[in-house]
Amino acid sequence: MNVLPIRTPSALVPVAMSLAALALVLGHAAIFGLVHEADEGTAAHIFQLLMVAQVPVVAFFAAKWLLRLSKQALRVLVLRACLGLVAIVAAYWLT
Question: Pick from 24, 7, 25: which is nearest to 75 by CA?
Fold first, then answer.
């Protein structure tokens, strides 16, 4: 069976988590506006948890797939890194 790395849960879960973090930031900004709060709210904590929880899943993916299919796995890791960076930049600019 020839499985592509992008179709594995260890690749899809971090991508989905990055997209969820981005949606959370954009949704919070759309609902509450660009208000600078004195204390972090629930949305900020959920964002942080979504971003940090990706680390072990990405590490597992890299350990499993980089030696098998390095070119395809590297593409998945670059996609994940770009999505994570977009979510972090959006959180920085919108809060």
Answer: 7
- The pTM (predicted TM-score) of the whole model is 0.87
Q: Is residue 1 one of the residues assigned to a domain? A: no
Note the pLDDT tens digit of each residue in 15-73.
999 999 999 999 998 998 887 777 788 888 999 999 999 999 999 999 999 998 889 99
User: Where in the sequence is the domain holding 78, given as residue range(s)?
Assistant: 7-94
Residue 70 domain flag: yes
Report if residue 49 sits inside a domain.
yes
Contacts of residue 18, defined as CB under 8 A and 6 or more positions apart, other chains included, come to 50, 51, 54, 80, 83, 84, 86, 87
Cα–Cα distance list, 1 to 4, 75, 76 (Å): 10, 21, 20
Nearest to 54 by CA among 7, 29, 91, 88: 88
Q: How many domains, in total, are found in the chain? A: 1
